[in-house]
Amino acid sequence: MSGEDNIFNRLTPRQRTLAGLVLALSNFMVVLDLTIANVSVPHIAGNMGITPDQGTWIITSYAVAEAICVPLTGWLAQRFGVVKMFISAMIGFGLFSVLCGLSMSLSMIVVCRIGQGLCGGPIMPMSQTLLLRIFPPERRARAMGLWAMTTLLGPAMGPIIGGYISDNWSWHWIFFINLPIAVLCVFAAMALLRPVETETARVPIDKVGLVLLVFWIGCLQIMLDIGRDHDWFADPLIVILGVLAVIGFLAFIIWELTEEHPVVDLRVFRHIGFTSGVLSLALCFGAYFSGIVVIPQWLQSSMGYTATWAGIVTAFTAMAALMSAPIAARMMSRVDPRLMISVAVLWLGLMTLWRAHWTSSIDFWSMAAPQFIQGFAIPFFMIPLTTLTLGSVRPEETASAAGLQNFLRTMAIAMATSLVLTGWGDGQRVSRNELAGVLQPADTQSALANIGMSTDQIRQIISNIVDQEALAIAVDHIFFISAMILFVAAALVWLAPRPRANVDMSAAH
């Protein structure tokens, strides 16, 4: 057996365990930052004197930067070594986290969040690669189970951790807390992982493809983020951004399909199993994260919840997911993954449809119930979807397929964040106009006037009630659309053939 085959023997069992915990912790930190700022946006917006809509740039800038950097992970690891790149990315992530916390303006925090995302993008796939590298084959399933749990738990725990910190300390600390974790992971990686460093090689990079990727994604995301404020395509700026995004996207596809060493290997889309799997994955993550984004915003802006309690509502999903994850892992080898995915996504869609009937008078436990029940389904679609997509391509294409899968998942989150908050705001305006048209406030005005309220006070109270109801109706519309998307995703997976029994994840950078 070659040294590369049994490289895990370079570490003692204790060192492997410690290294595994460090890698899982680093992954948890990065995926946590996808959602930790969600409940803190009102705090940050108020502190900086910006609107909550502008504050969503803090969320989307991180996700987009992370998505763009994910396809570069394989090239960076080959060029500089996976351990060196992991350590460098952790250092950069920690430094940009501090700069985010020190930011005094929207432009500064968005730039720093982009830097944080660029450094965080490679950490997730490289931590996965290193886990597979340091553990022997018989222990890799357990190690990847730990890694998968941090991937699952991080986004769900982000709102509650961010809410508690924002309410009890200040929003700056949602970024500062990354520094001690990053320092710990850097020193632990330097002490434990250097013996398992990969060989380096001068491999070419697709510079044109990378520029086109950044260009069309940047134009698209800016269009989505500012479209509402500019009345969408009534503004020439939005039209220009839309045209540039389409041109850049088409040029990107043409170039990548003809490039010998593409930054994103689009050829894997020829496999129907991969295509249907990643489309289902993107739809599921977009619909799932729409709730994670909109619920804290609604509860804080309209329902009088603090950031902490808004985060607790969403955290019930993580509790249930932790309970069901071991069951999902055991069923993986016994049940067709397409059946597991389909049932789980249908379950998620039904819970989302349940939430589409929330009202402005709903109590805490009535919101917590569907959040908790839907959590049981999460592991049953997240883990099997990876097996389905990667099991549908040839073994030598696994690395490209895994990178593209991570890219599309992260982009789905970024785009869903922009679209959901835009749709929520537009839906609120439409619902308010409809309510105002059918409202008969005479009895309410008379009752309030009888207790001594002035005309202006009465109008303000009625306006507030209408606004609150309109926001609740708009949230229900978001949930209804999300449920329909999930039902489509549940059907899509059946276009894929059953994947091969054994999927080699060791190449999935």
Q: Could you characterize what this model shows?
A:
With 509 residues, this protein is mostly helical. It has 3 domains: 1-203, MFS general substrate transporter like domains (Growth Hormone, Chain: A, Up-down Bundle); 206-262; 270-509, Growth Hormone, Chain: A (Up-down Bundle). 75% of the residues lie in helices and 0% in strands. It has helices spanning 13-32, 41-48, 52-55, 57-69, 73-80, 82-102, 106-134, 137-168, 173-176, 178-192, 207-226, 236-258, 272-301, 307-331, 337-355, 364-375, 378-390, 398-438, 442-450, 455-492. Helix 4 runs antiparallel to helix 18 (398-438), helix 14 (307-331) runs parallel beside helix 16 and helix 18 packs antiparallel against helix 20. The longest helix is centred in the last third of the chain and has 41 residues, at 398-438. The two termini are 23 Å apart. Mean pLDDT is 82; it is low at 505-509. The chain crosses the membrane at residues 18-37, 57-77, 89-108, 144-165, 171-193, 205-224, 236-257, 278-299, 305-327, 339-356, 376-394, 406-425, 477-496. GO terms for molecular function: transmembrane transporter activity. Keywords: Cell membrane, Membrane, Transmembrane, Transmembrane helix, Transport. It comes from Sphingobium terrigena. This is DHA2 family efflux MFS transporter permease subunit.
